[in-house]
Specification:
The protein has 19 helices and three strands. By secondary structure, it is mostly helical. This is Helix-turn-helix domain-containing protein.
């Protein structure tokens, strides 16, 4: 997968106007440039048109086909390179058995089919293979959240923490998997880290490449929650440049946390490029779960970009959002004691999130291409439902 630039970034790179870049794209003078919705995605390694002195850079393969398979049973789909549009084909080529079954459960989960994923992973929750068992627990827990089976989800999450707490004598590679799964479950549900959580540097290098890329997404998400947006975005950009594009599931999630970072930094152009790139990777295989999971953190970027151009897909994403967030809050709130807004519509939540991040009414209106009065109406309704009087008070109810 290639990296992409926005119109603005290409204009800065080539020292020309944004209007000229639009002209290049419209005339087909930039090989690989693709229009998605109303925006252009421009390959980062594309040459400036009309400059014969530059030679097109050869893409570098980051795949390591000869790397040892330390964890053949752990999240096999996440850890398998495949071209977008060939996800099912990749799974079908796997040898029948637990690994293939888990890979299919991964596909069903990441494509928004939580019930199937839950059914497929339940038989493996007591597997004697540590990688298979932890994969099953992780997928099962998140699937149960979406399906409203909260007690089942809590038990699976507790099994993950128990495994980590009791794994002092396991081999370092196995311990790395256990630590990663526990870290990801805690961060993505915004829960306290396990007491015996080892430092990331002790287990990150031991993870296989596709899972390592996802672990770096989790780290970037963790930094985002600490409001270290620039550092988080830096990790995303570095991880993508070092080969994460080969692993579509991890790449999608990395791009989504970059959207979160750049919206927090009030850089919507960069955020849009990351969202559209994630969408380009995800759509051929219908891997839309991550968009629904992150809706509240994406700063209304789904409303601004996906809804106008892919309205039916947007409806499906919002359905995932409602189902996942309902379960998420039922696990998050009792454990942390924090209130998270659950009475708002997705549109009210997205706009209130931007208002809580100090976006002005005019900035929000421009971003969503709606009137300032419409923005004010959504914010007033959100404040009424939450019983607050100022925009500053919204922050305590919003996901960070």
């Amino acid at each position: 997968m290639e990296r992409y630039l926005s119109i603005r970034e290409a204009a800065e790179k080539w020292s020309v106007s944004e209007r000229r870049i639009n002209q290049y794209c419209s005339e087909g003078r930039i090989p690989g440039a693709e229009k998605i919705g109303k925006a252009w995605l421009i390959p980062a390694n594309a040459d400036k048109p009309g400059d014969p002195r530059k030679q097109k850079k050869q893409s570098v393969s980051h795949k390591s086909p000869n790397a040892p398979a330390l964890f053949p049973g752990f999240m096999p789909l996440m850890n398998t390179p495949f071209e977008p549009g060939h996800c099912i084909e990749t799974i079908e080529k796997m040898k029948p058995g637990p690994k293939k079954d888990i890979a299919m459960a991964e596909y069903h989960y990441f494509s928004g089919q939580a019930e199937k994923a839950m059914q497929e992973t339940e038989p493996y929750l007591i597997s004697t293979d540590g990688g298979i068992r932890l994969s099953a627990c992780w997928i099962f827990a998140y699937s149960c959240l979406t399906m409203g089976r909260i007690d089942h989800a809590r038990r699976a999450l507790q099994e993950i923490q128990n495994t980590l707490a009791n794994s002092g004598k396991t081999d370092p590679p196995v311990h790395a998997i256990e630590a990663f799964v526990a870290f990801a479950a805690a961060v993505l549900l915004h829960l306290p880290l396990p007491e015996k959580m080892p430092p990331m540097e002790t287990f990150l290098p031991l993870l296989p490449p596709g899972v390592r890329a996802f672990a770096l997404y989790v780290l970037a998400h963790y930094l985002y929650l600490k409001e270290e947006y620039g550092q988080s975005a830096g990790i995303v950009e570095a991880t993508l440049s070092m080969g994460a594009y080969d692993y579509p599931i991890s790449a999608i999630y990395l791009h989504l946390v970059a959207v979160m970072d750049y919206m927090s930094l009030k850089q919507p152009d960069r955020a849009q490029i990351h969202l559209l790139t994630a969408w380009k990777i995800a759509r051929p295989d219908d891997l839309i779960e991550g968009f629904g999971e992150h809706h509240g953190l994406l700063g209304a970027m789904l409303e601004a970009t996906i809804k106008p151009n892919w309205p039916e897909d947007f409806k499906r994403i919002i359905d995932i959002t409602y189902r996942f967030s309902s379960g998420w809050r039922r696990v998050h709130n009792p454990i942390t004691g924090h209130d998270v807004a659950d009475d708002l519509t997705t549109t009210e939540f997205a706009i209130a999130m931007l208002a809580a991040r100090s976006w002005t009414t005019q900035e929000i209106a421009k971003h969503l291409n709606i009137s300032a009065n419409t923005v004010k109406g959504h914010i007033s309704e959100a404040m009424r439902k939450l019983h607050v009087e100022t925009r500053k008070d919204l922050k305590k109810y919003m996901l960070q």
